[in-house]
């Protein structure tokens, strides 16, 4: 969200990273949502407050979809129907900025489900919808920007992701989103910064700053991230050349 006066970026007070699993790929032909997973971000920190539900879609999953998520018809048979959890879901996301990968897909499915329940559309309940696929394509044009590819690029471990799952994928997406947008929530002003704020910045005594050395685990994670960058960089990466 941009300040209307100075153009600085201010983080949304509450964001919800959302993912779904479905019976197939075409909501307009009757495919349904079978799982919803949501992770809450408060001031760019993952909270313990999440939303998760499996759903009985009242139809069979397509073979291709079943191979992706592994949620069998038998497993889903005793789960609640969407309209039975719809109000709890809407209470959870209400007023938040939704962060979704390939948002058009999930939004279309959820709009169909909300329409059946006569509860409007997703955008009626959320402050905004952010598509991380669009962000990734802008940052990495011409590259693979699937969630798995972004996990590799930003050194986010997805070792547990043998099958797709809405809650697990929402957790991975939260980590990827925070890595992709790191620094964009800075409150440092542009050229219109008031003189007193500039003076405060200039008054910092660097000699009194405490230097915290990176741990072995952090250094290893950094090297893994650089390995991912090196695969895509032409002529090497400046960090290692330096």
Description:
The chain has 242 residues and is of the alpha/beta class. It folds into 2 domains: 15-180, Ribonuclease H-like superfamily/Ribonuclease H (Nucleotidyltransferase, domain 5); 205-241, no CATH class. The protein is built from 10 helices and 5 strands. The protein has helices spanning 63-69, 73-76, 82-93, 103-116, 132-139, 147-153, 166-180, 195-202, 216-232, 238-241, and strands at residues 15-22, 33-42, 45-54, 97-100, 128-131. A 5-stranded mixed β-sheet has the order 3-2-1-4-5. A hairpin with a 2-residue loop joins strand 2 and strand 3. It starts with 14 loop residues before the first strand and ends with a helix. Residues 1-9 and 186-202 have low confidence and may be disordered.
| Overall form | globular
- The CATH class designation of the largest domain is Alpha Beta
CATH topology of the largest domain, by name, is: Nucleotidyltransferase, domain 5
Q: What is the distance, rounded to the nearest whole angstrom, between the alpha carbons of the first and last residues?
A: 35 Å
CA radius of gyration is: 21 Å
Give the key terms.
single chain; 242 residues; alpha/beta; Nucleotidyltransferase, domain 5; 10 helices; disordered N terminus
Question: What's the structural blueprint in terms of helices and strands?
Answer:
Elements: E1 15-22, E2 33-42, E3 45-54, H1 63-69, H2 73-76, H3 82-93, E4 97-100, H4 103-116, E5 128-131, H5 132-139, H6 147-153, H7 166-180, H8 195-202, H9 216-232, H10 238-241
Parallel strand pairs: 1-4, 4-5
Antiparallel strand pairs: 1-2, 2-3
């Amino acid at each position: 969200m941009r300040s209307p006066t100075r153009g600085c970026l201010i983080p949304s007070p509450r964001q919800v990273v959302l993912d779904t699993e479905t019976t197939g790929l075409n909501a307009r032909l009757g495919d349904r949502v079978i799982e919803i997973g949501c992770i809450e971000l408060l001031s760019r920190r993952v909270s313990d407050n999440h939303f998760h539900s499996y759903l009985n879609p009242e139809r069979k999953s397509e073979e291709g979809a079943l191979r992706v998520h592994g949620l069998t018809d038998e497993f889903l048979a005793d789960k609640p129907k969407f309209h039975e959890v719809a109000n709890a879901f809407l209470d959870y996301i209400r007023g938040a900025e939704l962060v979704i990968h390939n948002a058009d897909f999930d939004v279309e499915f959820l709009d169909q489900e909300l329409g059946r329940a006569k509860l409007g559309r997703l955008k009626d309940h959320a402050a905004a919808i952010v598509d991380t696929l669009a962000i990734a394509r802008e940052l990495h044009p011409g590259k693979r920007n699937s969630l798995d590819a972004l996990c590799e690029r930003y050194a986010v471990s997805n070792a547990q992701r043998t099958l797709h799952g809405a809650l697990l994928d929402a957790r991975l997406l939260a980590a990827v989103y925070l890595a992709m947008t790191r620094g964009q929530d800075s409150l440092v002003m542009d050229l219109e910064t008031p003189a007193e704020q500039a003076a405060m910045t200039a008054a910092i005594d660097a000699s009194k700053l405490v230097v915290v050395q990176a741990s072995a685990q952090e250094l290893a994670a950094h090297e893994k991230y650089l390995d991912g960058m090196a695969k895509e960089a032409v002529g090497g990466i400046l960090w290692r050349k330096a």
